[in-house]
Design goal:
DNA-binding, 3 domains, Rossmann fold, 6-stranded mixed β-sheet, 333 residues, homodimer, 12 strands
DNA sequence: AATTTTTTTGAAATTACTTTGATTTATTCC
DNA sequence: GGAATAAATCAAAGTAATTTCAAAAAAATT
């Protein structure tokens, strides 16, 4: 049997409600009793039971974070920002890997609702995500991070994907490329779709015709980049430059290019997206579009807590992307 | 006011204890009432309160995982294994980044104790870690993952670091190297110390003299590898091969080597440790010692749950490391 | 049909805390 | 010194479930 507040009360010769007041630093307690209570706590090695407390106060000081896969460096950095800031505010965060699988997401959400977590960071949203929509109804505060769902005007934080896609493509065009391909993310994410929009917008702006065979759907992972790139390489007219929707896709694409005996950037230029920590250590160092992942995770928590603690909602936040030039792209004639 | 079990009971025309029985699939309930209760639950959109349940049952189905930094790919992969398997068994896991900072570790442990998490995966242990030792006293089940503490004979899971260090060094020696340096991890981790032991053991076995200036303390991160390598390069007799205590240190070392105008592996060979997912995509593809991170994380949970649910302790588990040859080492005359 | 047994349900206690209102004790003021 | 006020403490109710024991209803047995 663990020691309870009553044991402490008995040892200190006071009532349990007094002990509660001491622990929670409520006013109207004599110095004398404070001392007695604390010494009893120490002596009995008492640890308050947060479950019982939360049952009454309805504050449990834990959040949860839904991401596809923590072993993906993009989400790991996001998670670092999230956890750090949550911890600063006295909250713990439960980690959930969904693998972008709907059933997993639903199961997690149900479990988390039972545990009464106070808020959610959701980085797994798909374009039409019924379970997120339902989240709104249950009243559990949430912030969509990095991915949005169609039509939602508030409570999301993400990079300006359209601007990012535009920036990447514009850069390739500025280097003289015309045959520019795009390895996109999964089409059921706003992230992927918006980067495509930016890609097309840049082509249009600079009068480069869009060619359907120059776009392929990847999975935001190395293997996807490899596979789509292989298809591009089989084309009659392979692209001279490829914009990949994230850095991992770029890694896969580079591997495919090498395997076919070509070089990056001599034969084909590659630009990624995210700027994960290791991007500058790839071969060649990867030119990419930077997202401030840690800061975004941190901001997501700040906004989530504003919602939880002061019921403030805010319109969607768009972070400005940034071009990071390294060595995976080259100018052509 | 959220709907409670009593609301459901009222709606179904039964007592709350009956509803509880239905939810928990206890025997001795008529089909009739089961149906009525479930329909009431559905109608009222009832979600049981796990806090209240846990208060009574003392089972909260949540674990926690202490790691230095989730944005380090090694720990991210470990975390993936941990979370996946925990989830399979119906547990959630709270993520804690300590940055190897003692105060943070202590603060987390206190918070987690109050929340009554049922078990801990600890990947932050330092050689003499008072807070871990105290964990043993409080009776909270835990598994030390990847790092051990001095003298502990049970409840840890890690790679055989001595064997790993030996394997790496032996490989460099087999390629003809004699001037072999080692960039170690922080000296307050068993991981670092044991890999050093393996390093020295191999040197001894093959009659290569150990030179004090050929060993330096890193931080398991890119910057540390860079800094220590810079020092090696200033030596009168720089090493022809370097064994780094993890892959990130290798990345930093390679950068330093390049900056000084040398090439890997032409001038200096590098072998890492861990085999993080991206290791094969560095330039050059990194030769390294593989740890099965995901499997280790998974195993840690299995063993932790054995302890929690059946009170089984087990002696320390040592996983066998494996040499992965890629292109960052070369044979010399 | 009466009795026993089994199944089903309900009432009350329990879990460990917080909080409100009441009561006691101490302090201030006239 | 007594009344009014303020400070300190206690008692009891509330939080939302589970669980045990007892009672009622149904089924089985004689």
């Amino acid at each position: 049997m663990r020691t309870t507040i009553k044991d402490v009360a008995r040892a200190a010769g006071v009532h349990s409600s007094t002990v509660s007041r001491v622990i929670n630093r409520k006013p109207c307690i004599s110095q004398e009793t404070v001392k007695r209570v604390f010494s009893a706590i120490e002596q009995l090695n008492y640890t308050p039971n947060a479950l019982a407390r939360s049952l009454k106060t309805k504050k449990i000081q834990t959040l949860a974070m839904l991401i596809p896969d923590i072993s993906n460096p993009f989400f790991a950095e996001l998670a670092r920002g999230v956890e750090d800031t949550a911890n600063q505010y006295g909250y713990n965060v439960i980690l959930c890997n969904t693998d972008d699988c709907f059933e997993k997401e639903v199961t997690y959400l149900k479990l988390l609702a039972e545990k009464r977590v106070e808020g959610l960071i959701v980085a797994t949203a798909q374009i039409r995500d019924k379970s997120i929509l339902e989240l709104g109804k249950t009243g559990c505060p949430y912030i969509l991070l990095s991915r949005n769902i169609k039509g939602l005007q508030e409570n999301s934080i993400s990079i300006d994907d359209i601007a990012g896609g535009y920036l990447a493509t514009e850069y390739l065009i500025s280097l003289g490329h015309r045959n520019i391909a795009h390895i996109a993310g999964p089409y059921n994410t706003t992230t992927a779709l918006d980067r495509i929009k930016g890609f097309k917008k840049a082509l249009l702006t600079y009068g480069v015709p869009f060619q359907k065979q120059y776009i392929g759907e990847g999975d935001f992972r190395i293997t996807g980049g490899y596979q789509v790139m292989k298809q591009f390489l089989e084309l009659e007219n392979p692209p001279t430059a490829v914009f990949t929707a994230n850095d991992l896709l770029a890694v896969g694409a580079i591997e495919a290019i090498r395997e076919n005996g070509f070089d990056v950037p001599a034969d084909i230029s590659i630009i990624g997206f995210d700027d994960i920590k290791l991007a500058s250590y790839f071969s060649p160092p990867l030119t990419t579009i930077r997202q401030p992942m840690v800061e975004m995770g941190s901001l997501a928590i700040v906004k989530l807590l504003e919602r939880i603690e002061h019921n403030i909602t805010h319109p969607n936040i768009l972070i400005k992307p940034e071009l990071v030039v390294r060595k995976s792209c080259r100018r052509i004639n």
